[in-house]
Amino acid sequence: MIDGFAGIDIGKFQFDVAVISKHIPTKHRAFTNDQEGFEMLLLWLEGELLVSEARFCMEATGRYGEQLACFLRCCPL
Predict the structure, then answer these.
(1) 65: which of 10, 39, 41, 70 fits an S-S bond (Cβ 3.0–4.6 Å)?
(2) What is the pLDDT of residue 17?
(3) What pLDDT, on a 0 to 100 scale, did the predictor assign at position 2?
(4) CA 1 to chain centre
């Protein structure tokens, strides 16, 4: 069952995420657009927001979001 939705605004150096979940009010946070930022996103979703399964929607901005999309496709969330 899906318990969260994340909208991602991607940029060259960072990405912003807004999460809507049935467990919490809408939350927002920015992360660096690199492997560390991708991992911090998962920690934030699972640890702080208690989102265990999510759907992601990302703005198409050139190639800036390709690595994050690949990471999210393979992540356990």
Answers:
(1) 10
(2) 94
(3) 56
(4) 18
- Output the pLDDT for position 53: 79
In 45-75, which positions are buried (b, 16+ CB within 10 angstroms) versus exposed (e)? Answer: beeebebeebebebeeeeebbeebeeebeee
Q: What are phi and psi of 10, to 5 degrees?
A: -95, 145
CA dihedral 8, 9, 12, 15 (to 10 degrees): -50
Say if CB 64 and CB 29 are below 8 A apart.
no
Mean pLDDT per block of 10 residues along the chain (77 residues) reads 80 93 87 96 84 82 89 78
Burial of residue 13, with CB atoms counted within 10 A of its CB: 0-12 exposed, 13-18 middle, 19 or more buried:
exposed
What is the set of domains in the chain, with CATH numbers?
A: 4-74 (3.30.420.40)
CB 57 within 8 A of CB 65: no
pLDDT at 47: 82
